[in-house]
Amino acid sequence: MDKLLIRGGTPLNGEVRISGAKNAALPILAATLLADSKCFISNVPHLQDITTMMALLGRMGVELVVDEKMNIEINSSQVHTCIAPYELVKTMRASILVLGPLLARFGEAHVSLPGGCAIGARPVNLHIKGLEAMGATIEVENGYISAKAPRLHGARLCMELVTVTGTENLMMAAALADGETIIENAAREPEVVDLARLLISMGAEVEGAGTDTIRIVGKPTLSGARHEVLPDRIESGTFLVAAAITGGKVKLRDTDPHLLDAVLAKLKETGAKITIGDNWIELDMEGRRPKAVDIHTAPYPAFPTDMQAQFSALNAVADGVATLRETIFENRFMHAQELQRMGANIQIEGNTAVIRGMKQLQAAPVMATDLRASASLVLAALVAQGETLVDRIYHIDRGYERIEEKLTQLGADIRRIRE
Ligand code: UD1
Q: What is the pLDDT of residues 264-280, one digit of tens each?
């Protein structure tokens, strides 16, 4: 298993290019199952989760041609099996995103039920309920969701909770359903909007993406389209925290500052000087120690749960006391115990963490537990005294493209140990 060895203490300085968004690319790749001609998808990040989604599509008979820049040509005209098997779904929960498109286009889908994961139970009941309201018959047997519907029909869907992949699954199904679907209490995440852009290019009628009510008018068939994936706002936020935590100055290229309002507001509160342009963000900490900032996670446009762990690391070395409330996932403080091993002062009660900033963290061997938790350990290691060894970094490879190369480019002392 690969590990990262990081020597802390260097303020980061320089420029880095932000990759395409993993959480946009995954539903977009799944949506290509809806098209009866070729799709061309660009700005796809080179990540383990993307490889898993491509493997999943490949098993079904989808033809994928990938060039060296991760431009992908996808032909879904020859799908021969509508199964998403356990061995792939267990490595990536977002595999559930093939359920809606398979069912809408081929009238059936057999998708392994994703289990719980490190950050919480994460059920998919709302995906299933929405598809049933559109006319699907769904049974859960032997660990698989077996769905059938000769033809889905539009429906009015009022979501009990805001769910990102739930909204995406239902949007994709609705794009090939008969009639109109209204999704109320829809997720407003930018990745939902990016998926809507693709569905519109394929010929579907979609209005309201980015608001809490999305209206979709399905079409009998959808055609292939060209699409460029939007920049990754979580990777952007992670590199900005890396600059802030080390007292450095970093410019992000090929990003979109407007996707990061809540995160940029919090970074300004830490004392960072932030300048933005159309597609770039520069953060300058001017060598200062960040001030502690309170965090309350909630669906977009509020502060993202996917940035909570990174701000835990920042608060661990900040000046002052911060309270972090996690409202999306019930068990998303796994990184706290590892940060404590590096000397962080963190107290957890229920869904709240109280962090008292320390002047200095110390290096220690630590273990990544999930994707964003592993990012927080890397961030803490960048300022810790000594050499930190981060184990189980396959989690980080699921969501960060070439993280050690990008950090090295910014002056960090980090290297991958292959085992
Ligand atoms: C997506 C993101 C993930 C992010 C999360 C919240 C992708 C691939 N992943 O995950 O990075 O952390 O949004 O912003 O885009 N829920 C139910 N029943 C359901 C569905 C969800 O109870 O059927 C609950 C979940 O357990 C959770 C909450 O709703 O507590 C939100 O989860 P959801 O938005 O669905 O997360 P994902 O789409 O899995």
A: 999 999 999 999 999 99
Output the CA 93–ligand 1 centroid distance in Å: 10
Q: For 402-407, what is the mean pLDDT? A: 96
Confidence at 360, pLDDT banded by 50, 70, 90: very high
Among candidate residues 39, 82, 117, 158, the one labeled active-site is 117
pLDDT for the residue 116: 58
407 vs 419: CA distance, rounded Å: 21
DSSP one-letter code for 90? T
Centroid of ligand 1 to alpha carbon of 396 (angstroms): 19
* Alpha-carbon gap, residue 49 to 113, rounded angstroms: 17
pTM over cut 0.85: yes
Is residue 416 left, alpha or beta, with left meaning phi > 0 and alpha meaning psi from -120 to 50?
Answer: beta
Distance of CA 88 to the CA centre of its chain: 18
- In DSSP notation, 288-344 reads PPPBP--EEB-STTSB-GGGHHHHHHHHHTSBSEEEEE--S-TT--HHHHHHHHTT-
